[in-house]
Amino acid sequence: MEFENVPMEKWTEAAVSSWLRSIGIKEDYVTKLNEEEVNGKILLEVTEDFLKKETGMKSGPALLIIKKRNELVESLKKAQKVHKKQEGSKREPSNGKNVAQTKETPPEAKETTSSSEIRSVSTSKKDCRPRPFCKNGIDFTYAKHSVLQPESGVIDLISPCHEYKSFATAATLDRTRQKAKFAKEVLKFGVGCMNVRSNGTIHFGVMDNRDDDWYDHGEIIGVPVPEKDMYVDALDHIEKAFSSGDAEHLRQCIRPPQFIEVTDINGWEKRYVVEVDIVPDISVVKNRVYSVRLPNFRESSNKVEFEKEVIYCRIGSKTEPVSDPNEFYQRVRDRDAVRERAEQACFDSNAEVSQDLGRKLTMLITSGKKFIEKEKWYILVTNKFGKQDLSSIDFLLNMNIFSVFDFDPDSKVSGLCSEYSKHHAVNPHFMQDYKIPNGKSMHEFEDGLHLFEQPSWIFCNGRSDFKGDEAPFDDMTWIKTRMTLLRECVSLICKQILPKGTFLVVFLLTSSVETPLLYTFLEFFTDMEGHDDIICISESEENFLKWQSFAEGPCGADTVNRSSVVGMRMSHINATLQRIQPIISRTTKLLPVCSKGVCNFETREEERMHSLDILGANHCDETSFDYAMEQKEHIERQFYRGGKVHWLNFWLAENKFVEEVIRRDAYNDIAKLIQENLKGQVGQLPICCLTIYHHPGSGGSTIARQVLWNSRKDLRCAVVKPSYSLSLVAEHAFQLREYEEKDPQNCLPVLLLLEDCDRENLDDLKNELEVAFNTKRIAHGTLCFILLTCRRSHDPQRMCKDSSSENVAVTHKLSDGEKRHFATKRQTLEQRHKPEFILTFVLMSEEFSEEYIEKFVIHLLQGIDHTSKDTRLIRFVALLNTYLQNSFISQSHCVALLPITTYSDRFRQHAFESCLSEQAKLAFIHLRDERTHIDSVRIIHPLVAKEILYQLSKYQPQSDIALDLLHEDVLLEHRFGRQDYVKFLRDLFIRRSRISKGDKVDSFFSPFIEHVQKKESPEMAVVLLTEAYARFNDDPFFAQQLARFSYSHDQFEDAQKWAELAASKMPNNSYILDTRGQVYRKWFVAKSKALDNVHKTPENTADTIETALKALEYFQLCEEAAMADDENVNNSGFFAVVDMGFSVLRLIFSLPIFSRNPDTCIDYLVTDLIPESVRKPWENFHSKLKNLQTLIHNALEWISEDLSYFQTDVTADEEGASQSYEMKIYHPKTWLVNQFSLYGKYFNYYCAETINKQSPFMKRMKIYRLGGGNIITIFSLLSDQNEKDSVQILEEIISCYPRNPQNARLNPMDLSNYIATHIALSCLSPQSPKLSSLQDLQSLRFPREKRDCLPSALFLRTMLFWPEEPDAEDVKNKKYEIVLGALEFLKKSYWRKRKDMPPRRRRIYTHFFLGNGRGFHKFVHKTEVEKITGHLSMSEKKSKWVWGGVWKMAETAKLLKRVTGWTKGRTVYLEGPKKRFIVTAMNTNTVPYENENVTFYLGFTFSGPVAYDVTVNHNQL
To answer: Looking at the whole model, is its pTM more than 0.85?
Structure first.
């Protein structure tokens, strides 16, 4: 559609959509406007606010739509005038050979079919200036539709006068006609200039018609130039147009044509402005008047003819014939004299005083500061570097380069990239790499390209050494094929990756400027919404001119000149910028080595280890002295005000520039632990883990970094950066350990600091390091890594009490010595700083007294304007900081929220701070991301944030603050830092607190929601969660929270609605299904309580039972979903089925009809019997109730099997709990024993008959009641401190089985339990009369097919048939075959059970060890081994087990039997069996790398036999 031909008010919705696409609006916005039914009439009325609020459009596209609409409306008005004029116009006559252009449309409309060509005429037109006069062969371009100053007459004879010719019609003629037309115009203009002695330039391709309605006078259009020689040859007409003497003068004064390229972002046709300069030197034209016979092509004769001789001169802006030749001749001498004086004045005038380019360069690079900012990102746009320039790039080496747009295809081989990569690591990319694949988040995309780690070197025009399809293109091909890629690349960086003001774009022009580089400027200018953060540096003025002429189009001449440094040599640029850099160039970091010396640490090698912040022995020594002196006060104040400690703080103190940073007592504690580990001990592990638990804001992180700083000359030290995979961290940690060391076996240990790292990540990293340790075959007993973890906790001392040898506590409470240090330091600081500027230090010296904090905050908030926007920002930040650790709001979010007026981007930080109130300035501390350098703000301390929120909530409740925050579109939709902001906002409503994560308590809801429901009202909490659900696009997890909140307040119908909604969105999520079951479980509990006050009957209990059965139904679905999930372990459904099942049983048994006759109830539940009293009331769920026993039994068996495989050790993090989303089961093994016993009690009744007359079912229920129904409950009796009671119980369990079990053919479960009971009894009472012999147990009939055996039966089979010393060789071999047969299926079962989980999360449990005895005496239960360390303290006991010391104790050697074997390829084999018998080593660190004969202790697990303490057997002959 040609939009100019149809009035806008008649546009359809489809037409509006087409127009929006044509101006570059994203398809998402086009679709939204189409859905809003925006047609032409509506488009004329829409405002920018409408577009942003109603469609969610960003400011940029909205502004563009309004601007383009207004421009189009104006062009349509002009077009209507043109059409009226054209109604009576006639076409010019033409012959058969040539057809002249008409005035109906612009000439370009005839030359191209692109509607964008026509539209471009109506866009805004920028002024530009002409090519510098008489500068031939320089790079210079014109931008199409830019406008030159109007044609001019004589000025001062030296400044050229200008004349324009569109040449649009002539350009379509044949060669002969074109030459004649061109020569005529040039010679006429040239004679006119020579006769008045003025310099001049005639321009072809520039509109000269002042009355044209399409084009402005002086507008650059350009002409196609297929043959440049034609224009040169056209001047051959000089000889025929002049006498021989005059012709020679004309040749000297008329310079050859210059062809200036016209750039057009919307078109592909190459066009030029053809310019001819006239220079009438006085030495040539003195005393002469020139007349000319102009050439003219006669159509009648079809040849060029010359008109009569005419004298021309410049009159104003035109070239006219001389009216009075006599007078003109008489004034020749006057004109000559004026010309001569003008030439002499020009020659004699002093050169323009040169600018102070050094200062200009400094101001542009530093944004007016004294030094280059360390955190500022630089984007470099450049082309080919010469060899001499490459020797002067030191200034680039220490600049924080984000990306380089390199247009030199040879850069990787011989250009800037080649030289730069000698010093720094780079990431080679192409423009197409900057496309975010579907489904990838921005963080994932950044990580994939390693942005923010090393410079992204973008080869914009191919790469000559690359073997893929990336060849360089000529300008026009590049525009056609790569222009879109450039646009997307620049847009992504400027609009989604780097916030405005955090980066500076530097165009470094070192060779002739190609057109693609010019378009790169245009893209940056467009996406950065201005020129403030773009500068240009060019040594060559010729290279700069082309860039300048293009840049002036959108920016204007003054702006381009202000932001450009031209004429400064590269070596001078290099020296000038090095002087203002914070770091001295080409300094080398040093690392300590094991020989007590140091080695050079190459920067590019350090950058390749980008997951670590590595400290060198000479760290910070590269800091410029001037920079240190300038910044020391700011750095110190920032730290004592609450900022994070930096290495520069320690360096300044160490070099006595500032006073020393106080060392808290915990520093000495952790340093002592490190020294103890460095001394080594028996069984030294390769990885040592130490933890600092600290109150928030108590200085724990500072202590940890102090330890690293003071260890950097003796150990290799590094901080692990967040957000990197732990496998990558482990890889980089080993690279750091072995860097420049000769022997990997003999390297200095690496001290790694992990800040705010939870136990799970620490264990994962430790596991990754152990895998690498074993792969590299490091000798056992070698300390490789010390992992120092810094973790927040509200009770650090409790976290440390059990492991004082590994943990250190840091609290707000100061010791007496610390109080003295802090008091002295405070006096010193207060002499230099006001207390509010060192607030965090003051708070710490006051031990974070609540009274002091309250007084401070009340004083801070005095006179605050509660209606101002920055107070609103304080409320938002305080809310997040109070309830979320480490939360913040990015500065770009703050700027978007606050009413900051237009300001220069170079001073945006000052503008942001100046718009804050005094209260905000004192409350906020400015942070900077160490990786991306993006600024953010938070309250100076969490306790201060909490008090600020408390004080401000007196005027506005916290719920209202949260709603205000939730509904703030500016913050939620702001693109920079959005992922962090959305996470904080989401966590505010949904993240529960965990003691194991450093929180005060374990909460059922987020701390904020719990506060609202307690301090305000539950209804307001529901409002908040409902609003959050809608705000986060109907997130099912918010629906889940609403369900949980509703049932916790007995709003069961609402809970049901929300739970079903969540499940409909995520039907396979076991946690949401569990919540759905919990809704009905809680509903059942409420209904059951109501029944306690009435007489229970089948009729009034039917609804309650039906509710319970619904709960069981959803818990079963939860079980199925959990079993299908290979990446998570969620046992909540199984625990809930048991709990819910027993709750139903309690209700049923409490009915009078069953409480009087429990046998009837059991018969009803397990047989076909249906009592008449319940037949009708319960008719809808008889079958479900009769299945209840099976449900409970299956769930208990599943839990038991899971506990049989895996450990449930109690740790500080796990607290011994089997944790679900809704409930915790503490000490699950004890829970299981109790539940199995309860199960037996419910389904067993006592009668007068003896046990022998009881049914098999009743006997089995009695066994369950006694604790013998499962292998876990049976073996738990071995842990009972009263062994006598355990013996009696085990004997009674055995009595419940047939006297001759061989003939009774026990089912697989009973068989397993029977054998397990005997093994348990043999451990406690080997002489018990109830104990069968080992041979009798071996003779029991196991299922013929091993796949039909239960895992517990296979496990017991490996124990029963384990060979003994007296066994004959053939007997041993037969037993080993039985064991290996059982192991084949046992291992398959284990791998199915473990899922795709890391071993540390599903640690195998060892039930028994192989002892020194025979028969039953060879089975030693784990509790017996644990008794060896029972007399030790908790800390010593843990150390013995972690470090393997328990295996070296004499008591262990006496109790357990060491078996022999060998290792091959780090696999342990058992000696004895004919077939190779692999035994899994529980600690691979003890397995030798070489093929050795070994001994080890043997353990029995559900994954098969395992080896402990694998030791090389030196005594074997």
So the answer is: no
